[in-house]
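Q: What would this chain look like folded?
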Amino acid sequence: MIQNKKISLVLPCYNEEDGLRAIFKNDLSLIDEIIVVDNNSTDNTVGVARNFNCVVVEEKNPGYGAAYQAGFKRATGDIIIAMDGDDTYPIKTARDFAEKIIKNDVDFISGNRLKRGKPSSMSALNYVGNLLLTFAVRIFFIKNIEDSQSGMWVFRREVLDKLELTSYGMAFSQEIKIEAVDKKFKFIEIPIEYNKRLGQVKLNCFRDGFKNLMFLLRRKFS
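A: My prediction, written as C-alpha cells:
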C-alpha cells in the first residue's frame, strides 16, 4: 500500500515468462496484488506467475485490449498500474507515478517514451509509426497527447469505472488515453525510460499500425 491506498498491478501476457521473471526481480513490496492475464500463452507464463503468487486470469479471447479488460475487471486496488509483461517499462517509475497520483490532484498518468526522442531500444520504423499515430490522435481529436501508443499507465480506480472502452486489440492503448481526456480527468504524461523487450516480439508494425489508424478513423467519423 501507499498511504493506505491499495495498489494493483495488471500485466497482460502472451508468452512472457522471461519478461515476468525480470519484473519480479524488482522491489514489489508496495504493490498489494499482481494480476497476470494469460492470453493463450504456450510457454511457462502461467507457471512463473503462480510461483510468484500472482492472481492469474485466463482470457481466451486473443488481443491486447481483451487481456486488459479482463484484468481490470479483476483488479481491486484504489490505484491501478497497467504495463506490458515484457519488462520494457520501469516498474520503479510506475510506483513513483502511483505515489504522485495519491499525493497530487492527478487522475491518470501515462508514460511518455518519445519526449526525449527515439529510445535506443525502439527501432526507427516503430518510432516513426508511433509518431504518426500520435499525430493522428492530435489532429483527429484535438488532444494534447504526446505518446498515444505508450503501454504504461497509472490511474485511479474511479477513472476506469467511467471510461467507455471498446477495443480488444492494440488500439486499446490509444483508446484509454483518448477516453480519459474526453471524460475531463486530470491527465498528464511524464517521460520514462523504455527498455529492450524480453522474449518474442508480437507487434507487427504495419498490420497493427494500420488497425490502430482504422480504429481512430472509425471513432472520428462514426
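Residues 77 and 103 are 16 Å apart (CA to CA).
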